[in-house]
Structures
1.
Amino acid sequence: MTSKEYLQLHLSLLLAQHGEIGVLEALAPLLGLPSADLRTQLDEVLKGGHAGLKKRARAASVGGSIETLLAEHPEKADLLRKIQARFVARTYLPELKDVRRFLDRHGQPSSSIKKRDGAFGKVARQLANLTTDELSSVLAEAPSSTYSSLGIISDEILGRK
């Protein structure tokens, strides 16, 4: 039995045991998507429009999940948008290792994150748990230097200051 056949068997059992809605509601948070967005993506795949779907889905899920998060926390929305702007400009958590450290400190798994740019959804969910005062202090922090750790190492090796 191939791994794809094995996966289909497991999914069939899950669907039989929990039903389609139950499986989708359990899967959506694991993918970081609202159930409605997951349903829309599945409908697109079933219609045969899955070429390029992964890229569109990832962009939509990050934007959509952040907008959903902002709607859930309107009192923090402005602060979260400012932090997002700093994240995009790489003045807040400028490197992937910084993002991973942040998530690890807040008890979230970070090993699945492969690219920094796609990680703001997870970061934003953790930031939304902070108080407005804590978010303000995050914004008050001096922007991280854009000088990478590799630059510091190369300067040390070459004896530059």
Note: Helices lie at 3-31, 35-46, 53-72, 77-88, 96-105, 120-128, 132-140, 149-158.
2.
Amino acid sequence: MASVLLQLLLVSLASARRHFGGSVTFSVKDKNPDGSFRVEVRHMATFDSCQDSYTTFCWHNCGLTSTWVSGKIDSSTNAPQSNTQWCQIETVDTRNVPSDKHFELRYLGCCWTQTRHGLNNDWRLQSSLDLGSRSDTGKPNRSPDIAILPFLRVPENCSRTYELMSFDPDGDRVRCRYGNIPNVECSSCHQPSGFTLDQDSCTLHYNQSTTDPRVYGFELVVEDFPQRNITLGYTDGSRSSRTPLVVRSKRHAAHTTLHGPTPPLSKLPLQFSFLVDPLAPSCQEGLYLPEFLPPTPLNGARLHAEVDREVEIRVRARASHATIHDIIISGPLNITKQRSTHGEFVIRWTPIQDDLGDFFPICFAVEAETGRHDGTATTHHHNHNHHSTPSPQSSVYQSEMRCVLVEVRRVQVNSHVICTESTMRVEVEKSSFHGLHEDHLRLNDGANIACRLHSNSTYVFADIPLSGCGTELEEDGDNLRFKNEITTFDNRTDVITRKHLLEVQFYCQYPKRGNATLAFTVHRPIVSVWDRGFGRFTYQFEFYANDQYQAMVDPTSYPVVYEIGSRVYKQIEATSSVNNTVLFVESCRASPYDNQNSQQTYSIIENGCKVDPTVQIHSPSHPRQFRFSMKAFKFIGMFDQVYISCTVLMCAAGEPNTRSSQGCISSTTPATSPHDHHRRKREVRVESARHFVSQGPLRLKRSAESSESSALHLNLNLVFIAGCLLAAVGMISAVVLYKARMSKVKYQPLSTDER
């Protein structure tokens, strides 16, 4: 009793930091020699300053803390007007729990930030978990992995849907509901208005509300239930049973009621703040509200990391009527974020040995601003829902929230890199390349003899110049990174692949001493030309959704994202005031750069003949159109985009001596006679000069962006290890992608002992 009074006294003495939200998750690590269990409790908490302000209340069977590590995750000054900032902190509380029975833990403190529905009193995060060994898995029960950004915001006139991260590693059914037990699951338990919560899918819908400088405080409870009847066994010999969640009606998930007593396997708190901003001029993403672009992973994507190696998530967004200002994140301890000088955000995190086998959610959203310098919001009349302008006080626009799930696995490729002032030396243990032969490994620039890999009895290695062998430069505000990779190939002359690939990516990082940027090119405009005999005409090169050629890909959505092996539909169309003309496409090539002189090219059409075996020619609607498609591919190496460029010309219709009338000229086609050649020169009006048109980029969807999880879609995403020399940091990563998307192709997945 005295202990309880002491805990409550500590609560009353705690400094009154304002609470924005928090969450709790559990992970059972192992069994101690004394029979107790080592349990890791991860507690997220967000306040109006970067200082802890809560008390831990031990409720049932929660043992003693052995280690306590706390650190800042993220912070922002874009808080409500009543606060200057919010700051999210994660605490990893490792506890020795005396038994594997059910236990409860509570974090509590004072007070909620200013809310608009009466939550300005004490907050509490009540959690519980049953650690019993499951009959279906034979392992201790695990809690769901939950996450959300601590501070969400949306203009009052823009409806939006938020899919809350709620993954269960045991495959249990997860449900999210409002807390309904005052002073236990919630403070006053007042539910926000203007929102709909789909409990079964853990989806929150913002429908409509009014702007207010105060936030809505959400106090949710996340529960998991088995998919079928199971039993939980305990070390003292006792057992308990759990049954699936049964509902009476599924018409409206928000009003689902339980049928009979069905206790959950665990209860976890999920609390956050939600601000409704004044009206936005437009609710269309990409104008004021930021729109995500590739290579940003999809919401719910499953990524893989390796112990002691850095996982990297790249995020890009645009807002044509606002300025991209910041990215806000939520994730595990030691996560970092940076913005590169070419506008891309990079989230990085390095798991440790104790994280092996666990899952870690990472959430992010991008924020844009208007009126940053003069304190007023820019007004444009593009609103889709209301014809109103925003308040001068509302100049921050937040994108949708996306969350990904990172699974931590064992190290698969043993390697390291050494950095000097002008070179990188990479060494990879040959024994870690299971089933791969060293003769089928290459650097980015595989054609250069000076860039070939070498080997001895133990390692495959290479000394790579920072300015050669396909090394690419990337920079952020503080560092320069020189990146290259080792990848597999079938034939050394290949530049593309439509098959599986293995990549070992590495880089050297140097403190910034200069300034270099990487250009990012988007949709190519219409080409307008003038030609004697043909007057002024234009070429338009576009991508289409399918072979009906009715839905052109929106130019503002570039780069266009495709899955490898999917069919890409393209159309080149000429317009001219001269009648009886036809378009002829003489050649088309692909390149990772928008440069017709690029040395890294792949032929699609040459001399009017199909070269790529997947090319199909589709019927045009008139003679000045050329429609074709092919299966998407990627260039071997660190090239994440593809440009298509074509050489085209206009010809007079019906003339026998034009390039169009000749069609495909293969190596076996008889050469044109000198007489015909001179005749075409005299009749130059029947054929225009050749012109160059290009379009792109195409970006191939990385398998890390797929939410699918199967043996045929095995993906180990970017992972790194670190070392340093001469103030440089050498990083190395391994990406192993074994993919089979067509039944005609078979791939060998990794064996169990190789994972």
Note: The mean pLDDT is 78.
3.
Amino acid sequence: MPPTVAFLGVFLFLRTLATARGSTDGPDVSALNVMFSSLNSPSSLTGWTSSGGDPCGRHWRGIKCSGSSVTEIKLSGLGLTGTMGYQLSSLTSVKYLDMSQNNLQGDIPYQLPPNAVHINLARNSFTGSVPYSISQMADLKYLNLANNRLSGQLTDMFGKLPSLSVLDLSDNQMTGNLPQTFGSLSSLKTLNLKNNQFTGSIDVLAALPLEDLDVENNHFSGWVPEELQDINNLQTEGNSWSSGPAPPGRHSSRSGKKTHGGSGTGSGVSGGAIAGIVISVFIVGLIVLVLVKRRSSSHYIDEENLGQVRPFTYLDANNEFSDVTYGKPNSSVHMKNLSTSSSSGLKPPPSDRGRSFNNDEFASKLLPKRNADTIDVSAFSFMDLQMATASFSASRIIGEGSSGRVYKAKYADGKVRLMVYLLREKNLYRILNFWASRFLAIHGVVPFFSFLQVLAVKRIDSSHLQVGNSEDFKNLVAGICRLRHLNIAELLGYCSESGHHLLVYDFQKNGSLHEFLHLSDEYSKPLTWDTRVRIALGTARAIEYLHETCCPPVIHKNVKSANVLLCAELNPHLSDCGLGVLYPDTKRNLGPGYNAPECTSPSAYTLKSDVYSFGVVMLELLTGRKPFDSSKSTSEQSLASWATPQLHDIDSLAKMVDPALRGLYPPKSLSRFADVIALCVQSEPEFRPAMSEVVQALHRCVQRTSMNKRHGDDRSASRRSDDSDY
């Protein structure tokens, strides 16, 4: 064979191999796959696909790359419909995003490309509010959200945007005063706010280096600051400006100085108010003590006293898991409407304020009655939830997944939590608040503070919702509320009004396991080995319940550390249970690293796929690593692929352990934990164990740990302890 022909053959082979492997980073491909599906797979996006592909190696319309990373997405004016997807935060190299002049609907994704410099989403049909994640985009220079249907107030999200020079929010439905952090936009040259419903003054803009300012057709009042009079292009028509000369010193508020009118000394403060204030101060002091105690609890690695880590009590006084037998889900579900005058206390009627109750009356108002044969599920009104979430403000967003955003809801007068729940959670603050509120109500005093009910409200994205009508959604709710287990997030209520579908859960103040492992801050301490094993066991119990107690079995389809919520005592509560039915005809994507190898289509997802995903969560607990990390070398990016071959090698296993543990774990415990992981993440589904087997293996670990502790062993004090320790 001539050398030229041979060389050409090798070249073509290598090129084919490179094409097969793909040259684009995995997270970028996954994010664009999700975007393509969310845009209803338009034929105009030539080269795009909903699964796999190589945007940088092959031409995808509107995509530009640098090396293996996507850097630009330009899809303006293509008549696109649907939404933008939910994995845009994975596009860490994207600098330029332009999807303007399309027909995109729904909320703007909470997470946008985090390092973007130019974002243009103008002339679409986006609703909701400006996403709060913009507050973290320090490199952003250009933001155009004009000509949409955005509403609500702007939150203080502009304090860390030193590079922003162009901001266009015109032709929307935004309300409220301008946020004070507008004054921090030190590079802002162009600001367009016309055709909204903004109110208040524009004094906060006075010190900005503006060259173009358009505030036409709003409800601004007061005077246009003198500092803005000389800018190149100023449009102020259509507002409620004050007539006549501006009073002297009206800009003094920008310096932070305020004058106090009146000469009152406070002698008019009522005794009830004083009592409320005194008790409030007392409660605040106790809160501080509780928080300090919780931060110093034995759930965490104490880096100052590495040899003095003690075990903690999980659910019972014997430092062991009590075996609880859970019956099959209750088939009888009672949907209870929650009106504004119900016993929930969301909006207590005015007649209740200021009058006293006897003990029986107060108890009947505070504690909702539960029928042993039914599960009460409250039907919240959309108006109540809207008020509790500040009109679903971006500042209240606490999470976002493939099914929608989760908001923190606050009910200032909510008195619906059961004392047994408070005692179970060992929440001293709520217990004291409960009794203090009761005392003040009985004595006719309106409390200065309230028993604060905090909820997590999941707003289902209608573009992903497959159920056809409100009755179908209520049937879905009925199915979810039958799931009753100590380690499953309890559904407290729902809302189905005017096309809005929401689920209401209790708020877990410790957030998710993902946050504990991967988003720690200077106030966080690493979880101890004991705590990690017990979190794994509690989560495994929840999945076992879904798989082997529920009839028919429930496939979760979304097991990941972000869905393992942690209560005040760090007991795990698996969330999103029962929501897999929302996606019967679409590919389920848990995000890079969690999907089992067989999950190439919805029909391929089985109970054993949940087992694989749980194995990845256990790997996170063991290593402290993310399931997929593009910042690492190619061979280490996928946690499961990198870790699985090393799980049975003692030396390699020791090197994999989360460095944050500082060596405080018994080697035998580590080895057995790794054995369970290895079984769960096997590539062939039929070889993975049932969750009951996983629970038994982890339960034996916990029981042996407890037994050794009672005999005085301190297995956390030494890394290389004897095998008899465990």
Note: The CA atoms of residues 245 and 486 lie 66 Å apart.
4.
Amino acid sequence: MGGIGKTTLAQKVYEHPSITSYFDMRAWVSVSQEFNQEQTLRCLIGCVTAASRDELHKQNQDQLAEFLRKNLKEQRYLIVMDDIWSTTAWDSVQRCFPDDNNGSRILLTSRLKEVAEYASSGNSPLNMPFLDADESWNLYCKVFGKTEFLLVFEQIGRDIVKRCKGLPLAITIVASLLSKIEEEEEKWKNVAKNVMGDSSDACSRILYLSYNQLPHHLKACFLYFGIFEEDYEISVKELVRLWAAEGFLSTEKHVNLEKVAMECLQDLVDRSLVIVSKHSYNGEMKRIRIHDLLRDLCLREARLENLLNVNGVKKPCRWISHTSIYFYDEVMFEDEYFHKSHSFHLTHLSYSWNEDVYRLLSHLKLVRVLEIRNIYWDRVIDLNVLANLVHLRYLALSTNRFSKIKLFEHWNMQSLTVSGYDVTLDSSEAYRIWKMPLLRNFCIGKILSLKDPPVVYRNLENISWLDSKLCTKDLFTMIPNLKTLGVYCGNDDDIPDCFYNFVHLEQLEKLSIKMWINSGLVMCSIPWATSLPNLKKLSLLMSYLQWSELRAISMLPNLEVLKLINACKGSEWETYDGGFHRLKRLVIKKADFQCWNAVGDHFPMLECLEISECYCLKEIPSGFADITTLALIQLSKCSDSLLASAKWIQEEQNNNYGNDALLVRSENIWESGFASTSAKWIQDEQLNNYGKSILARFENISLRVNI
């Protein structure tokens, strides 16, 4: 039964601390009815390796399967295949999962009992039960947010819950709906009346009732979820930009449309119509998804309203979404099918940018949103072919080839993104960006040339990746409201001025810096604290800094997130008092340091520590046991001694501060020399013969040993 809690239960298991620490690797893939083997393999590989998208794109289906198998070999892994619908889907991937008799597990969820029994290794599948009366009422109260009601409202509520027949999704949605309605007897009785009828369609009635209660603008926002693939995790940042471009939202002057969109999304979440699948470090929504039954509702209602066509254009409509790779086989290019479309999404086009696509684009006269992914471009992408699309507000393209972008002029453009391998902006066309006065988001692989704007552009909030030599005072003073900036550093002589000029971006909150060469720049000489007083998030990629140079960065007064990805060199990092006093999240990836000297006072507000592919680091500083704000330590591809130190910190926090909320998650832990079938014996021998050692602090922690 859809909505009975299969995925919810699987997620609880998948994220439980005892599971994350037990398995070397974990991977989650949503299969869905429209099974795509290649896409499933890519998703699984992405969970268990650091392989790049470009590297995977070069491999065919058989190569992907073998690549996955090799990476899982001799690892203790947990694979979750959620929402699997056919035995064929299971047969096509099961050979990728080696059985090394080491405790690896595969967990499936399915609506079909025969699929579960077919894939089972002998144990009986768990049949999810409906909730009983008490469980149903408890869930209702939990979602509603209180347990005490006036007698008349409790009676109506219990009557409605009874009609949900123990289905958690129905109970959750109806409780969310009633929590939005004033406690007036007549209004509650109307809800009860609308869910009357045959119990078999009670859930459907509740879903429709919740949808019908939405304000008009929220109905459009909700139905728009139908453009996304089943079980697709949707980027919140992407979604709010799409809603803004579609024109669903109305706002007063000087109010950011994306802020209004976030309020609308929160409303849908509060009504339990949308599920938050991933939060950012500060608790904000990062990724969301929608339940299959609710997506089915979106598709039905959108088709009834003649709003949406999915995978096949049958008649003129407002939104077109094509997720199949067989675009040319399933779509005709006649004018009448496209001339009313405001939104066109083509997400798996494995063909070249040819005459058919040109002809298609010529028909999209009213289009506001255009998204074309995974297309084989020519070496030069001339976007002038889109010049006749005068209503275009949102453009997202991606390619897997080296490409040079030629811009076009669009007065209504709000977001323009071209992603892919080595995509650059044609120098002769760069000035055209200033012909788009409403542009808020501009993201291209490399922007190597950009003339200063003729007037102040107050709408531009996000630009990347900008060559460092373009980061001038003249440019930054003309885009004063920039909040997010990505900088590409490829020339030694231009880098210093780039940093000093950041002082002119008073609204800048997020900064990412890529350095493709060993710049030799002494960053500690840069006045970070005064240059970027409002910066909240800093990401350094391939910057090759000395660890000591982070001392100046630590003085940023409002820095909350620091990501160091292949960013620092040297064997030792020593932190100091007075820095990182607001840092909440620290990410260190691909660093070769062996020793980290720090005390808790150096990171007084740290909540999340993530360390990945730091094979030489033996332990997290013991002073982290004194950071009472610490809530998560996440390790991936690190030594087992590092995991042991994290466990020790967890135990110390629990013992000394009563903090049992600190989670330690680990994946793909690299076994050092003392971790073997005789690891415990070696540990005891070290303690007996050599006294205090790194293992002495962890004597109460059982080491995980793969046999």
Note: DSSP finds 24 helices and 29 strands in the chain.
